[in-house]
Amino acid sequence: MSTNELQITAAGAYEHVLNELASAFDTPIRLTVTNAGGVIKRLETKEPVDVVLTSAAGIAQLVAVGLADAATQTEVARVGLGIAVRDGLPLPDLTAAGAVRAALVSATRVAFIDRRAAVRPGH
């Protein structure tokens, strides 16, 4: 690891944007991408990092245990929620919170990311 690199640890939602922006920096970037749980685990193991990008809840957790300084927290993006259905199935009504809940409750299968996991699926 070079001391001249900017060490960024980020949740996967930021990966594409950071890769696009990397060429705009004068300093080389070393980007570590994981999920929100992995970001927290990397900081808990004292991995060197200059910038952390993860959910507001993840930052709050890092602040609560002394691994991040609340005074340096800045909201830089908002991430939307994605929902997919199998081909041939009707699209659920997602116009209100109650409708989303009903769609999830009535689904025969629901997949989600385990934010406590340390690695992204398939990586």
Query: How are the strands of the biggest sheet laid out side by side?
Result: 2-1-3
Radius of gyration: 18 Å
Distance between the termini: 21 Å
H/E element string?
EHEHEHH
Q: Tell me the number of strands.
A: 3
Choose one word for the global shape: elongated
Q: How much of the sequence is in beta strands?
A: 5-15%
3D architecture notes:
- There is one protein chain.
- With 123 residues, the chain is of the alpha/beta class.
- The protein has 4 helices and 3 strands, in the order βαβαβαα.
- It is elongated, with a radius of gyration of 18 Å.
- The protein has helices at 15-21, 36-44, 56-64, 97-106; strands at residues 6-11, 29-34, 51-53.
- Strands 2-1-3 form a 3-stranded parallel β-sheet.
- The longest helix has 10 residues, at 97-106.
Spell out the key features of this protein.
123 residues; disordered C terminus; three-stranded parallel beta sheet; 3 strands; alpha/beta; elongated
In short:
With 123 residues, the chain is an alpha/beta fold. The chain has helices spanning 15-21, 36-44, 56-64, 97-106, and strands at residues 6-11, 29-34, 51-53. Strands 2-1-3 form a 3-stranded parallel β-sheet.
Furnish the topology, listing elements before pairings.
Layout: E1 6-11, H1 15-21, E2 29-34, H2 36-44, E3 51-53, H3 56-64, H4 97-106
Parallel strand pairs: 1-2, 1-3
